[in-house]
């Protein structure tokens, strides 16, 4: 029965469609942009002191929407300073979207963009082979650590590339979010693709404490409207359920007991909040800023 379930990542178009709906129904990008607007200027306030150029590394930069917001804050803090922005991103499609976004954005004259179509571990291997240990003033990984095999090793490698006044920013789902609760409880029963790990800020903090790195964490409150998930046969609701469970066609392929349990769980106050007849899933994120 359960064998007909497969990972959402195994069907690219289904993944893209469910992700688009997730962004439409959640405050995911808004909460990140608010963090960039309000907190980031303080975080980057000394990364470029006395420098004629600032080196920024975006690991898993995606289509660049958040990257460009980050760059605008660095520009505002260090007007006229050259910014070298390098992007590691394995998806050619995302790089294309990023380049299109750059082409449509004004005031990027002092920013030099370089894209590397590879994963973070491919980048690490390539640099080690070339014996290149380029240092960075700001490194960020936004919603990408789920796709890394060895998280502590990855964090330690990129941490080793920080300049003395640099900062290393990680954003991912919070340990207090509905995601963390769902994954802990149902992860073993869902068709987890080996490309993707269920990891939250709680896991990352634990690992940073073990490694002995200094960091500061910020909670970014966010919600996702999952009301449609409870309307039988609702196409949008079914796609959102696919996204929540990382399962392709979850409604059609999940065993009935698992489906019922997850639907029950989704309604619990630890996962979601009911307001004005709607159900809002706890989509909280965490921003973790690691010191050199």
From TrEMBL:
Xref: PROSITE patterns: SAM_HNMT (PS51597)
Residues bound to S-adenosyl-L-methionine: 60, 89, 94, 120, 142
InterPro entries: HHMT-like (IPR016673), SAM-dependent_MTases_sf (IPR029063)
SUPFAM superfamilies xrefs: S-adenosyl-L-methionine-dependent methyltransferases
Domain of life of the organism encoding this protein: Eukaryota
Keyword set includes Transferase: yes
Organism this protein belongs to: Chelydra serpentina (Snapping turtle)
Binding site for substrate: 28, 283
UniProt keyword annotations, A-Z: Methyltransferase, S-adenosyl-L-methionine, Transferase
Name under which the protein is recorded: Histamine N-methyltransferase
Oligomer status and interactors: Monomer.
Listed GO biological process terms: methylation
GO MF annotations, alphabetized: N-methyltransferase activity
């Amino acid at each position: 029965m359960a064998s007909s379930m497969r990972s959402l990542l195994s069907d690219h178009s289904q993944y893209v469609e469910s992700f688009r709906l997730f962004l439409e129904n959640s405050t995911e990008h808004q909460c990140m942009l608010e963090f960039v607007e309000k907190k980031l200027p303080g975080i980057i306030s000394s990364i470029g002191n006395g420098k004629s150029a600032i080196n920024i590394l975006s690991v898993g930069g995606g289509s660049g929407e958040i990257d460009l917001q980050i760059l605008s804050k660095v520009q505002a803090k260090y007007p006229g300073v050259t910014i070298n922005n390098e992007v590691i991103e394995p998806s050619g499609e995302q790089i294309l979207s990023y380049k299109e976004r750059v082409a449509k954005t004004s005031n990027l004259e002092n920013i030099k963009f370089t894209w590397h179509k590879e994963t973070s571990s491919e980048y690490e291997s390539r640099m080690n082979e070339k014996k290149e240990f380029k240092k960075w003033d700001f490194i960020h990984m936004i919603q990408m650590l789920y796709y890394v095999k060895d998280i502590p090793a990855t964090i330690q490698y990129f941490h080793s590339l920080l300049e003395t006044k640099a900062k290393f920013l990680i954003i991912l789902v919070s340990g207090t979010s509905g995601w963390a609760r769902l994954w802990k409880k149902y992860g073993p029963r869902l068709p987890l693709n080996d490309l993707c790990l269920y990891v939250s800020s709680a896991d990352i903090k634990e690992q940073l404490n073990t490694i002995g790195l200094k960091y500061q964490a910020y909670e970014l409150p966010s919600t996702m409207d999952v009301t449609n998930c409870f309307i039988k046969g609702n196409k949008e609701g079914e796609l959102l359920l696919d996204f929540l469970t990382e399962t392709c066609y979850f409604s059609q392929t999940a065993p009935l007991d698992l489906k019922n349990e997850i639907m029950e769980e989704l309604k619990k106050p630890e996962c979601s909040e009911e307001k004005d007849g709607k159900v809002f899933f706890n989509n909280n994120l965490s921003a973790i800023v690691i010191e050199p």
